[in-house]
Amino acid sequence: MRTIASPLMQFLLSLPRIAAGAPVTRSAPVPRTMTDARPAGRGDAAPDLGELDDAALMARAGAGDRTAFNLLVGRHGTRALRLALRVLGDPAEAEEVAQEAFLRAWQAAAGFDPARARFTTWLHRIVVNLAIDRTRRRAPLPPAGLEAVGELADPAPGPEAAAVATQARAALALALADLPPRQRAAIALAYEQELSGAEAAAALSISERALEGLLRRARLLLRSRLEGS
Known about the structure:
Layout (H helix, E strand, L loop, with lengths): L4 H9 L40 H9 L3 H23 L2 H17 L11 H17 L10 H4 L9 H19 L3 H12 L4 H7 L4 H21 L1
């Protein structure tokens, strides 16, 4: 699978300094966390951005700090790409969706409220919505995701075990491709991204009960497809 970090980092270099229409303020430096301001008298040295949490980096991004936003891309770009790939099945489309998701995140950075949602939940929601919307505007899902399957092989298996594992993963990828987009997204969020039920439900903008229903239907369909193959 292609990595999103380098292409998207280059892409971000062409972004405007701040979202269109959002005022750029020159307030005091953002503290290391959203609630823990740096004590006075310790000098004016800037904190190490790599040590800041996602919320603090988004606060800096909202003030126009592209470096802070690039760090968020580095942390979460691959996860966003994997999620888009699982819903769309096509690597090129998945990369486009991931790039669009980060562009929207950059443009909305000034309005991001960490009290309402974690950055990752907020980002996952953007990716899922963009990916599902794209599935509605194009032909049925291609049998992709298979490009990424080979990278998931166990380290140094024997030839026979490797062949069996590859065949099993290919069958699973094809079965996942037959699921409706929202069920694929639910599977990806709950099992591949390993989000909690509350986080996965929030990313899909549904209740936890509705998420359980999506996952149950997805598992039944997967079992049916895999037993049939």
